[in-house]
Amino acid sequence: AEDDRLKQLTQEGSTRLVGGLPSSGRVEIYHDGQWGTVCDDGWDLAEALVVCRQMGFSGAISAQSGGHYGEGSGPIWLDEVKCKGSESSLSDCSFEGWAGTDCTHKEDAGVVCEAGKNITINRQFSVDNSLGLSDDLGLLFDSGDGCDFSIYVRDLSEEAELVFCVHRLILMIYPELNITNESRNLTVEISQTCHPLVSSFLRYFYTRQIDVSITSAQCLHQLAFIFRVKKLMEDVGRVFTLLIPEDNTFRTQVAMYEYAVRTGDLVLQENVLQYLSWNCEFLTSSPVWSSISFHLMDALLQRSDLIVKDEAFLLEALERWIQDKGDEISLEQQAGLLNRIRFLLIPVDKLYDIQFSSSVLHQNHEKLYLTGLIRGFQFNALPFSKIRDKMGNESNEYRPRIYTADEWSVFINVTTFKYPNHGQDNRNQAFSTPAHPNALYRKQKVQWQAQVFLSVQECSNRGITCHSSPAARFLSNGNQNRYADTIRFSNRLILTCKNENNVFHVQVFKNDMAVIPTNSSLGLPNPCPDDYRFRFVVRPEFI
């Protein structure tokens, strides 16, 4: 009944953002009593602007595509959305009809809205006294005056115990706590390392405000889980996402992922997995690599947003991990992970070398490797049209990850953002790549031009429209059109700190352009705002 009441309160055509920050995320729209996603076909800044204004933001920074904020579930309500930019809601734009789509959730659309002061379309004003009331209630908690409910906090070993006296009436505001008029006390168990944060956490029930740092995030998240305060748990998870780039050792991220699995926080799992995927190449060379769990390894190997030099590099890293684990994982688990390797996409010369260089092949998995090698050679020797029908539509074995070997990518180092007119020639690079890693196409070259514009004026000088800056353009000389029926190019822009080498943003090029969101609206903050570089990656994929 409660769910039905909430559904009635949600208006037809309402929108929400999921999987990101309050001002960014996957776009979902409410129709026929159910939330659903929007396909990214035709998704551009005009559509993002309508969504952002509908939700009370002053404008849009960028439109995201390709399931950038994770894949949704349920119906895909809208496809081929076309907005003028002046509509008051997304459902006012033209589209194919509700649920009229052939898209999958891999194409879920997202937006990044301007995170400045919100506006309201109908000029309504709200009276917000929560700050003053929060301060007063905080003082009430601090004083303990009139408290009538005890919370006992014990260490898991029961060697340490804290007692807090709070106000039953305050706790009864939170129905998830199941506190009644007859309740007198509550006992919870949590590690002693989290005990210093319990007072701040309980104060949150009074003020609904709390400070979160990279050292306190896990304890606060765990307390929110124990007390079943889902909203705070999600908020702490998002705050932790902002803090992720601060730990270059990957220890915090790996620990937080394991904790998110235990608590069932899918949003936090996805946020951490995305960061580890983007930084997979650096993760494999860190001391943490050999200690990560089987289920984390399995989750990583299923992703197509892994950034690595090539698939052979990933196989070598996995083999090293298997050897380091030894008897900790079974042969069945090893085989399951090795089957996640996309043998079809290993460069054919390295594919040949595997039979001589592999450290795992001759131990326990010779049949698995030989099957992978045969399929890899078939993939490189036969036209894709001949073997396509033998693969399922959902098969990932021929879908590329984000491969950054020198033959597929180029760097543009931006020396300064303070003087946009400086070094423009260094922000314009030409290079060529094979049409596809497949041996049949490796000798066929595609010419590319990579450009970075640091100001809207600089775009204008080149005859290009940029809605914000910096912006990047990545276009070919047109000869990629020769392969339009066989190969599509889903190219990527990677933003990387020069010194630490950590990746903090990946964006899909749409119509040859990628607009870089500002630091306040990035899914992850830019830890090096004045000293990062752009990496342009060519990503061909058989259709």
TrEMBL record:
Coiled coil: none annotated. GO terms for cellular component: membrane. It comes from the Eukaryota. Keywords: Disulfide bond, Glycoprotein. PROSITE patterns: SRCR_1, SRCR_2. Pfam families: BACK, SRCR, TRAF_BTBD17. CDD domains: BACK_LGALS3BP. Disulfide bonds join 39-103, 52-113, 83-93. This is Galectin-3-binding protein A. It comes from Anabarilius grahami. The lineage of its organism: Eukaryota, Metazoa, Chordata, Craniata, Vertebrata.
